[in-house]
Write a structure and sequence with these properties.
heterodimer; A: about 280 residues; mainly alpha; MetI-like fold; 15 helices; about 75% helix; globular; B: mainly alpha; 13 helices; about 0% strand
Chain lengths: ~280, ~300
């Protein structure tokens, strides 16, 4: 498309206006987190005259935000490790051993991407209750491990493994290495770019997820994730937007910082599933 | 020979199973099994708590399709999905082409438009609930400032405008995602084709209609099917922004289903709604994939 490039100031202007439309809501949430309530209502779009940290202090007084934060980090970390392990190992045989049984199982797994999470979630909670797993981390991890995340990530992994030449493993199998060792020592290290995408994709999805933790963990104080905490906080202090913004800034800051540092990987990771479909 | 192949296959199947076994097991236990339970519960009057319940056949289905509330939710889901998918795709195609033709700051703008994608839908919702709030919201403030006070609206509280506001917010969050897919798709169009098109004297409009749009068909398939599935299942934004209100003005199937399953304690009814949602999604996405794939051209 390079040849169609022309000097079109109108185009630059239109895009700049749309970009402002995208920036204003994020900008206003950010600056108002550092303003007093009266400053926010008086001049909502002005940058703060001084950095007011009262909102953040109040958030810490009213909730155990540190615990909420730790909770989200812990849940995201463990879930991502489980998802990457399950989907990478599951992908390997589908890419390498094309038997009839494998192609049947493959289709059976891929159907999972199409099942609306609500369909299984409303009954899953009843099953978890029967085993005393609702409201527990284990219940949440198992829910993620069994969800559409694994088929989707597996699908991305299969596409990537297909691009790796088979000769590598064949020479390893002559050496007498077991299939598992071949996979973990030779193939998995070569999947690094794909694993990077999978980590970003699933990590962000789980950090930002709302319905699953709300359903499985409930709103119990010790077990809130950041999204559930924002929701219940906003429900309690409906008009105190500067307080809500302070919570939001803390919840979104690590994500935004990572995004700014690794824009290319983020965009690649978040669209990896879609582009290959 | 045949026998040897057979045992070879058996061995491969066994090895394969040792790889995908754990994933398959949790998938069956935590997605397939509960999905089957939902089908079963949809035929009962279970409240989700008590030990006893009766099998009522298709009574739940008859009830939801004869009651106004669910039909209203179906209507809202349809409106939100069609409007969101149509508008977001049209905007994304134009934005992608515009960005592709930009000389400077291409990747900067791409990141700006993509940023809402990395934010939680819950965060995006409260950002906009502030932007759109009646008395202190930014939008009404700006309208006041521009002396356009008569255009002020209760964006999320007025039953007449709330649907537009909601669809706008969904588009705002999703646009960057679709734009990036179309941008990637644009890079696959060979330069020679565009050159040839120009030499033939095609104007910008005909260039777009006859060359770029048909070659964007793979991107359209992906974005429309994926967008429909995601749109139909929208929950977070609606729950946080309106809770389905005012009244039931923005209640969708998923919002209604979650309400029935939790607060209303009607597991049977919620399950029947989930089943309807699943069947509808499956049919719509299969038909669409088939139709859109046919439109894709080879070059």
């Amino acid at each position: 498309m390079k040849s169609t490039k022309r000097r079109v100031p109108v185009l630059d202007l239109v895009i700049a206006i749309i970009a402002v439309l995208f920036a204003v809501p994020m900008y206003s949430a950010f600056v108002n987190a550092f303003k007093t309530y009266s400053d926010m209502t008086k001049s909502p779009l002005k940058p703060p005259t001084y950095l007011y940290f009262g909102n953040f202090i109040e958030v810490f007084e009213r909730t155990d935000f540190l615990a909420i934060y730790k909770n989200s980090v812990f849940i995201t970390f463990v879930s991502v490790v489980i998802l990457v392990f399950l989907s990478a190992t599951a992908a390997y045989p589908f890419a390498r051993f094309k038997t009839r049984l494998n192609s049947i199982i493959y289709v059976f797994l891929i159907i999972g991407i199409m099942i609306p999470s609500g369909l299984s979630l409303i009954s899953l909670i009843k099953i978890l209750m029967r085993f005393g797993l609702n409201g527990t981390y284990l219940g949440l991890f198992l829910t993620y491990a069994g969800s559409w995340w694994v088929p989707l990530l597996m699908f991305i992994y299969i596409g990537f493994i297909n691009t790796i030449p088979k000769e590598l493993e064949e020479s390893a199998s002559i050496d007498g290495a077991s299939y598992f060792r071949t996979f973990w020592q030779i193939i998995f290290p070569m999947l690094k770019p794909c694993t990077g995408s999978a980590i970003i994709f699933s990590g962000l999805g789980i950090w930002n997820d709302f319905l699953t933790p709300l359903f499985i963990l409930g709103g119990a104080d010790g077990q809130k994730t950041v999204t559930v905490a924002i929701y219940s906080f906003a429900g309690k202090y409906t008009t105190r937007f500067n307080l809500i913004f302070a919570v939001m800034v803390m919840a979104a800051l690590p994500v935004i910082v990572l995004f700014v540092l690794m824009q290319k990987q983020f965009i690649k990771g978040l669209t990896a599933g879609a582009v290959k479909m | 020979m045949h026998a040897k192949n057979f045992s070879q296959n058996k061995k491969l199947n066994l090895i394969s199973f040792s790889f995908y076994g754990p994933a398959l097991l949790v998938y069956i236990l935590f997605t397939i099994l509960p999905a089957c339970f939902s089908f079963y519960y949809s035929l009962t009057d279970w409240n989700g708590i008590s030990k006893e319940y009766n099998i009522v056949g298709i009574q739940n289905y008859i009830d939801i399709f004869t009651g106004e509330r669910f039909l209203n939710a179906v209507k809202n889901t349809t409106i939100i999905t069609i409007a969101n998918v149509a508008i977001v795709n049209i905007c994304a195609i134009f934005l992608a082409i515009a960005l592709d033709n930009l000389r400077r700051a291409k990747s900067f703008y791409r990141s700006v438009f993509f940023t809402p994608q990395v934010l939680s839908p819950i965060i995006v919702s409260y950002m906009w609930s502030y932007m759109m709030s009646y008395s202190s919201g930014i939008i009404n403030n700006i309208l006041d400032f521009l002396k356009l006070g008569n255009l002020k609206q209760d964006w999320l509280g007025d039953p007449k405008v709330v649907m537009y506001s909601l669809i706008f917010i969904l588009i705002w969050q999703g646009l960057g995602f679709y734009m990036v897919i179309y941008l990637a798709n644009l890079q696959t169009i060979p330069n020679e084709l565009i050159e040839a098109c120009k030499i033939d004297g095609a104007g910008r409009v005909s260039q777009f209609k006859n060359l770029i749009l048909p070659l964007l068909a793979p991107g359209v398939t992906t974005c429309v099917v994926l967008g429909t599935i995601m749109s139909v299942n929208t929950f977070d934004q609606i729950q946080a922004l309106t809770g389905g209100g005012p009244g039931f003005r923005t209640e969708t199937i998923v919002v209604s289903m979650v309400y029935e399953a939790t607060r209303a304690s009607r597991q049977g009814v919620a399950s029947s709604q989930a089943v309807v949602l699943f069947i509808a999604t499956a049919i719509v996405s299969l038909v669409m994939t088939k139709y859109l794939r046919k439109r894709e051209v080879e070059y």
